[in-house]
Amino acid sequence: MAVSSPTQTTQIMNNVDAVRATLYDAMKNDPRTVILGEDVGARGNVFLITKDFAKEFGPQRVIDTPIAEASIVGIAIGMAMEGLRPIAEIQFADFIYPAFNQIVGEAAKTRYRSNGEYTCPLVIRTPYGGGVRGALSHSVSIEALFYHVPGLKILAPAFPADVKGLLNAAIDDPDPVLFLEHKKTYRLIKGEVPDGHYTIPIGKANVLKEGTALTVVSYGLYVHWALEAAQQLAGEGISVEVIDLRSIRPMDKTTILQSVEKTRKLLIVHEDNKFGGIGAEISAMVAEEALFSLDAPIRRHCAPDVPAMGYAEPLEHEYMSSPAKIADAMRELARF
Amino acid sequence: MATTNRTSPPFERAGLSDEQLVGMLRTMLLQRMLENRGFQLNRQGKIPFASASEGHEGVQAGAAMAFARGRDLLFPYYRDLGLALGVGLTPYEVLLSLFARAADLSGGRQFPHHYASRRLGIATISSIIAAQLSHAVGAAYALRVRGENGRAVLTTFGDGATSEGEWHESVNFAAVHKLPIVLLCENNEWAISTPLAKQMGQPDIWRRAAGYGLPSTCVDGMDPVACYLAVSDALDRARTGGGPTLVEAKCYRFLAHTTDDDDRTYRSREEVEAHRRDDPVPNFERRLVEAGILAPEGLERLKAELLAEINEATDRAEAMPYPGGEELYRNVYADSTDPWR
Q1: What is this model's ipTM?
Q2: What does the pLDDT average to over A301-330?
Q3: Cα B60 to Cα A36: distance, rounded to the nearest angstrom
Q4: B75 in reach of chain A (CB within 8 A)
């Protein structure tokens, strides 16, 4: 892990603790920081991420907004243009669609259209992802809808230490950043988090496990499942390299290509559906840059192309992958 | 609620000096002449596009006179040429925008009349209707957080913008937090081809303010002094902790929406001609001459000076280079333009 100012001590945290601790430090250390969103104040966010923030920092900096996602982002853009460091929250990623124009048409183009006269240092945080019985409107993945857009940065860390380092980087970043938090990992995933302020560079993937037989690229919840599957396959004598993308845009081309040139096989695993997903861009990039290094066709293990996962358990189960399904996909590619 | 119906008050100077009154007329004349120049250049095939604000000169010159340069912040829309001129944009900068030259404020990226200037306090805008409203509200909130009393935000929009959901969201948020902002509607009765009657069930935008819990006022948008007074009162209230105000200025769009529009397809010449009686530019010229503030020969001299300035600026801007193709790649991000590192 690239840590700009490593410290000796660490704390065990889950992902939700890591978000909370990082936001707390940002509020404590920079009076320009404001948090705005639905139920972030008195309620302290629906996952209690900002619990007691309003008491400590006051309602002027921890703003319970009306239920109006387009203007949550639009107001944050205006704040950012005028020197604050807003952290806007969309309560669930599924609610972000009304804000599409403000993110794509406004935030992403503020610097560009004014030729640098105005900038938009804005973080939009939002919980995404399934496996929590969230049905059609509390479980979607939204990254593919936004990663097409130059001017935006998109992060999706999976581990608590990465959550802290990348959220700090997002807050420090001079451009708009969409920060995606997989809600099933919020309390499920625990890990050591260095004390003190540090950042992880945006645009750097992390090789979680080195291997020789094939490369798996993933992000979010499925990184953990891919790692579990890879460990299982190690027992079968198949050596799998697992890369956690962490940053979806910009994307770490170098790390992916270096890995693929070594293993000569690529499997991309993501929770979002397949058509036009992140895997499509990675596949195209690898085909353009490293086709003749490949010993097998690129494979994508993704969600089916249906509008969403259903509420009923079997429908969610059918939509979601699992360590076992990912292990099967790895075995199949390894055998090719 | 400080509300009035549309009236044309008798001429009064509202505390404005002769110099300020003539200054407003100067802004109005510049707006009209520059706009006319934009249409001419388009018809000559020299520029691809120009948009129209003829009929908005009164409200814009009045609002600009109320705006405190170097202190207030402006979040305009794309029909605010006169407002931009009134707060300090130069004719040369307008022509650079029309010609899309490298030296344009946006480097030739934006459509004409989408100005962004920190120097003048003009925020960057897109062409998306009402998208700037929430930015303006956010900027007003930033002034509040920083405790910058004595400063306010002025944002403007047309009647069509009030149909957008984000208009509602923004006015509502401004009212909830009693923000230092003035929301100025330049109601010209037409949203491209869609008339007011198809845009809203009742035609008085100022009446909506009561539903949000903020004061509003309605003025004759063809009268620059009345508009100055209304916007000045509202900005003073905003600067002194009195919260937001919705101001509706009723004006008219005399020309087609843009050089690409033909308004003969949706409104009668009779309607347009009937509104010409209220044309703010000749009416204000006449008022200043009749009040003895400007002599007839002074008016002619002023027009000649402005025309000479615009002619000179046209030649100078036209002679400037376009941005090079490499400029396309700049300012995507602060540090890099490459999505792949």
Answers
A1: 0.95
A2: 97
A3: 33
A4: yes
